[in-house]
Amino acid sequence: MVSRVTRLAERGAGRLPGIVVALALVFLYTPVLIIAYLSLSPAGQPTIPIDGFSLRWYTAVLTDTRFIRALLTSLGIGVVTAICGTALGLAGAYVIVRSHLSQIARRSIAVIIALPLFVPTVVVAFGIGRASALVGLGYGYLPVILGHLFWVLPFTTFLIAARYAELDDRLSAAAHDLGADDRTVFRTITIPLLWPALTASVLFAFALSFNEFLITFFLAGSSVTTVPLEIFGKVRIGATAFLNAASVLVIVVSAVAAGVASTLRRPV
């Protein structure tokens, strides 16, 4: 009897992680599925169950001038942030993993880069806004991009650093022995081996920038409107049906970027 109870307990313990994961997925994705379902309602204030299916609100979103302008702004800021953030992340990863600095210096640099991860986003946004005002940048595209770069830098740096640490030093040493200089080794060996991580970094940084609200809210001023700011404006006026469709489109863009990044694998 005791052994049977033990076997049942072990079997239940083995299933526990799967149950926890399943419950977490339900908790996270049920609201998304509900929004997607309601976005297909033709009514301005949809309820469950919806009265028929319609793409009316998707058409309204894609033909709304303000939303399209905000979408183009978010795409532009996201692309610039992704490229520059990955370049800075590559430099940071090199310093942390391959530089000739002491271990204490490299760890200190890693901690400094990681600080935005441990500080509430609202504090980071307020601090960047105050610093931007003190140096005379004010509000607009440049402060928003700088703020986004500050936010995505830890993600790009440590994503690339994880791959950088796996590279075989003997490949670079062999290239140097054959007469290649540092620039040639970096261009022909290091970059190709880091390429999947660099691509993933670009996509993750873009997704983070595209969805960032607080930093943009503090730094945009009246001249810059991104998709999160436009959606926030619609929330204030209670445009429920419009918001459902717009939210689904934003989720799709972000999910595609993050999904593609997560499928990348290092070269064999």
Task: Break the fold down into its secondary structure elements and pairings.
Blueprint: H1 2-38, H2 56-62, H3 65-97, H4 103-118, H5 121-134, H6 141-164, H7 169-177, H8 182-211, H9 214-219, H10 227-237, H11 240-263
Helix pairs in contact: 1-11, 2-11, 3-4, 3-6, 3-8, 3-10, 4-6, 6-8, 7-8, 8-11, 10-11
List keywords for this structure.
268 residues; mainly alpha; MetI-like fold
Instruction: Tell me the radius of gyration.
Output: 23 Å
Order of H and E elements: HHHHHHHHHHH
The CATH superfamily of the largest domain is known as MetI-like
Poorly predicted segments: none
Query: What's the mean pLDDT score?
Result: 80
Tell me roughly what share of residues is in helical segments.
Answer: over 70%
What is the CATH T-level topology of the largest domain?
A: MetI-like fold
Amino- and carboxy-terminal Cα gap: 51 Å
Structural class: mainly alpha
Number of strands: 0
Tell me the fraction of residues in β-strands, as a range: under 5%
Descriptive account of the structure:
The protein is an all-alpha fold and 268 residues long. The chain has 2 domains: 1-57, no CATH class; 66-264, MetI-like fold. 79% of the residues lie in helices and 0% in strands. It is built from 11 helices and no strands. It has helices at residues 2-38, 56-62, 65-97, 103-118, 121-134, 141-164, 169-177, 182-211, 214-219, 227-237, 240-263. α3 (65-97) packs antiparallel against α4 (103-118) and α4 crosses α6 (141-164). It is globular and about 70 Å long. 29% of the residues are buried.
